Amino acid sequence: MANPRRKISKSKRDKRRTPWMKGLEHPSLSVCPNCGEPKQPHRACSSCGYYKGQRVFTPTES
Ligand SMILES: [Zn+2]
Fold this sequence. Notes:
By secondary structure, this protein is α+β, with helices and mostly antiparallel strands. It has a domain at 30-62. It has helices at residues 10-17, 20-25; strands at residues 30-31, 38-39, 50-51, 54-55. The strands form 2 sheets. A two-stranded antiparallel sheet has the order 1-2. A two-stranded antiparallel ribbon has the order 3-4. The site of zinc ion has 8 residues, from loops.
């Protein structure tokens, strides 16, 4: 049977649920292949508007 070996303790369970942990776990940064700016992964680049080699939107200020 696929079961967890140990019951998760109250403190461990509650730590997982704290909202502030989410920002710390994934300090997400990747580099845009088009302009080289740091951007969020799986998001269009905010400075040039490119994603997967296509322009998804036109950046307003440049
Ligand atoms: Zn870019």
